[in-house]
Design goal:
The protein folds into two domains: 37-162, 3-Layer(aba) Sandwich (Rossmann fold), CATH 3.40.50; 172-281, Nitrogenase molybdenum iron protein domain (Rossmann fold, 3-Layer(aba) Sandwich), CATH 3.40.50.1980. 42% of the residues lie in helices and 14% in strands. The protein contains twelve helices and ten strands. Strand 3 (99-103), helix 5 (109-117) and strand 4 (121-125) form a beta-alpha-beta unit. The chain is globular and about 60 Å long. 35% of the residues are buried. Residues 1-37 form the signal peptide. It comes from Wenzhouxiangella limi.
Length: 283
């Protein structure tokens, strides 16, 4: 009997040790669980960043965004914290975010530094080319706790982009008008330059090493565009009225096209729709 008692006691100690080990393992697993299991509270510092968060399946992590964040509809319902260049820090603090999505090349460095001083992590998102929209979807999905959905969104986008390759030649001289007064256009750094190339067109101000710039009316004419594309808002004034008024002094074959700008110039998956529309409208 004593020997059997010792055997049973040993088994009990083994089972107890295994149970304790399992509990410790579970505790360590919980302590080291990826932050993605509980999405951070996030603010988007540009309209396209809010749209990308929703496209990556992580819109529910957003607690605030900036003016003109109007797509999808859920983005327009989020609290506003300012615009792409000026933030209301009191509103930001009231939302208690722990992560801010910043626009590399657009968000002022001083604004990002102030957020970091307040203990808010800043994630810079760079999109300079169409292919980088896919990378942004992956990164945002990862940072906001939806890695699988971000990767799937990127895969879908890249597949759609691959179906729309650049033609061998892109030589249709095209002027893109952001605004009439002052007369603003987009330069070589802006993704629109690549969008135009997908449709066989050439940005006549692609040599400007900037995202956007004011230009002179005479400078536009000197570059002899065959097409003028102007962004327009529903219910707004005709953005091409000056060109139409001066039609007698312009080439007879100059094409004037007005388009809704968001799908053309916002670096999000919807830019595929913008490419398709522009390619249909260009002569």
């Amino acid at each position: 009997m004593p020997t059997g008692s010792r055997v049973r006691g040993s088994g009990f100690r083994v089972r107890t040790g295994l149970a304790v080990g399992l509990m410790l393992a579970l505790a360590l697993s919980a302590a080291t669980e990826p932050a993605g299991a509980q999405p951070p509270r996030v603010i988007a510092l540009a309209p396209h960043l809010a749209e990308l968060a929703f496209a990556a399946g992580a819109g529910d992590a957003l607690v605030g965004t900036v003016a003109w964040s109007d797509y999808p509809a859920e983005a327009a319902e989020l609290p506003l914290i300012g615009d792409a260049f000026r933030l209301d820090l009191e509103r930001v603090l009231g939302l208690d975010p722990d992560l801010a999505l910043a626009w590399e090349g657009g968000t002022p460095a001083a604004a990002a530094e102030r957020l970091e001083e307040l203990g808010i992590e800043v994630a810079w998102i760079r999109i300079g080319r169409l292919e980088e929209i896919g990378s942004a979807l992956v990164e945002i999905g990862r940072r906001l706790g939806r890695p699988d959905r971000g990767q799937q969104a990127a895969k879908d986008y890249r597949s759609a982009l691959a179906e729309r390759p650049e033609p061998a030649e892109a030589d249709l001289p095209t002027f893109y008008q952001v605004s009439e007064r002052p007369l603003y256009t987009l330069g070589g750094r802006h993704i629109l330059t690549e969008v135009l190339r997908r449709c066989g067109a050439r940005n006549i101000f692609a040599d400007l090493d900037v995202e956007a710039s004011a230009v002179d009316y005479e400078a536009v004419l000197a570059r002899q565009p065959a097409v003028i594309v102007a962004g327009t808002e529903p219910g707004g004034d005709d953005p091409l009225q000056r060109w139409r008024r001066d039609r007698d002094h312009l080439p007879d074959d100059l094409s004037l096209i007005a388009v809704e700008p968001d799908t053309l110039i916002r670096p999000t998956p919807r830019i595929i729709d913008g490419i398709d529309l522009l390619c249909r409208l260009l002569p």
